[in-house]
Amino acid sequence: MKFTRMLTTKLTSFWLMSLAAIAFVFLLSAMMSFVQLTYKFQQQKVAELETMLVDQYQHQPDWDLEAWLPPMLLAYNAVDFRLTLKDEVIFAYEGNLTTQNAMVYDHVLDPKSGLRMQLTLTQPFEHYTFSWYEILILLVGVLAVAALVRFGYLWFSQQLDGIEELALRSRLILQGKHEQALATPGNGKPRLINRALTKLLEELQDAQKERGRFDKFIRSNTFLDAETRIGNRLFLNNRLDALSHNQAMLAHGVIYLLEMDDLDLLQQSQGEAVTKELLNSTVNAISQLLQTQANSIFARRSHNQFAIVVPQISLIEADQFASKLLKICLSQPLPEVDNSDNFFHLGCAYFTAGDNAAQLIEEADMALRAAQLQGNSNWFMYDKGAIDEEFAKGSVRWRSFLENALVQRRFFPFSQPIIDSDGNEHHKEIFTRARDNQGALIRATLFIPMANKCGLMPQVERQIIERVLLLLSNELAGGVSNTQTNKQSAPQIYSINLSLDSLMSRAFTQWLKTTLLEYRHLTTRLIFEVSEDIVIQHQEKLQPKLDMIRKMGARLCVDHVGQQVVGTYYIRECHFDLIKLHRSIVRHIHLRPENQLFIRSLIGGLYRTEVQVCAEGVEVFEEWQTLQILGVGAAQGMYFSEPIEAK
């Protein structure tokens, strides 16, 4: 771009100098021609005088020079005149004019007789004065030339600006900023090339959208049920693996198995269209109810059985939710079939942290069989289990605990490194932990759902961001002191998760903007992570907030990619710098070719972009090795390091 600007500047300058030189030469030539013509006119008058003197000498021996020659010499503005015949002065004249640069004409009029004339005249312009009319004409001419030169310069600059705009668009294309290049078509010239670039960029944008739709198609056919468009059995297994570690559940929750007993008989008696309508209406109603439960899972296990997993829910709420599910199912318009009051059955299994994931399905299935034995459409909870002691705190006690923790600043950052393919640390992700009055750590899976319910997540994340900025400031000060001993290390980069409540809070975003401006020397060492499902559901509202963070100098990351079956178009539209694959995609990746296909498709869709692909939840070497082969550039998980407190 700099080279192109220099080239156009040189061309414009050369053209301007050439045009100015031509105008100058033209004026100089006109002036010289006028001067030369004036001198020639004076010479003609002298020649006429010579002719008259020769004619008088040859035809009139008795000269009467005194009668007619002095008035003529006076009209010629003669300074001096001598007419000699063989060195004898016949006539002499001296005018009353004086000059320093006189024009002397010394000509022999008649060589035979020796008649000679010496005439001294003033310069043609010595006694000439310009009138206002002549000055006006000259000034108009000069201004006209200057105006034409200026017009030509502006026109030529405008033409070269069109080339400059083409160069700018080309540079944006080479940098991968296709959306920006398409949004600024400008007035590039030649216009044919500019229109061709616009058309190619539009086709490229359509191709990228088509690639995103193709990725979604691959994921849909891999993880979605073709008839109901909800998760399939493979999707359920992946999500359950993500909620567990070594088959031990990481948090509490409940799993439901919903079965339509006589669905096959209904299809045989009423037809496929009626069955499909019942399935779609039931699935849509349950999906609408699940929107109130964060991170819930809804999948189809078999032709007539569905699985629902709701994490972070208490036992009382699980019972209430089961009643709502059964009520929704019974409210569906069921065709007249035999035993219609015994059509829906719901089996529930409540689990806590540490419960075996594989055993949960068996417990839920046993609960489902127990519900079927009761004879009517109903639900049954297999085992209420031991309720997590920490979770048993009521909402009032939780709010009191969280508010005290905020006041006493008992939220602490824990960091886990993200390792790149070369074995170097790419950055560290910050996890939030809280301490109670006895100093014991409170798991994030416990207090974050309650903080969301109490509306305290913006304050929690604000406190964590302040602690991270303090860490970076201390590291920067330590780096400055280390320069004296030549032990300065690479700058540390931290990634911080932002919740939907924080991003939608005007007070939080305003505080974040002010803080990033205050610590603008540290913003390049910050990465803010947002969950994929949040971006998909609220992209239009979050776009200005994400753009503000990016313009401040921080980078953006979207995590939990692959948790939902959605397109990837949002990655380009929101200008994310990193994406993190969800642990359900990474878990046992070396044994799951369908997950490998998804990652290959995702990375292929991001080809020629600067988006880096990371993986979270890597636990064994085989997973990391497979991810590297697939092209994933970095990863985090227990295989590399556990989260440790950042101090």
UniProtKB/TrEMBL annotation:
Residue ranges of every copy of the EAL domain listed in the record: 395-647
Keyword Transmembrane: yes
Transmembrane stretches, start-end: 12-35, 135-156
Highest rank taxon of the organism: Bacteria
InterPro entries per UniProt: Cyclic-di-GMP_PDE-like, EAL_dom, EAL_sf, GGDEF_dom, Nucleotide_cyclase, Rev_trsase/Diguanyl_cyclase
GGDEF domain: residues covered: 251-384
Entries under SMART domains matching the protein: EAL (SM00052), GGDEF (SM00267)
Keywords: Membrane, Transmembrane, Transmembrane helix
UniProt signal peptide: none
Descriptive protein name: RNase E specificity factor CsrD
Species this chain originates from: Shewanella vaxholmensis
Organism ancestry: Bacteria, Pseudomonadati, Pseudomonadota, Gammaproteobacteria, Alteromonadales
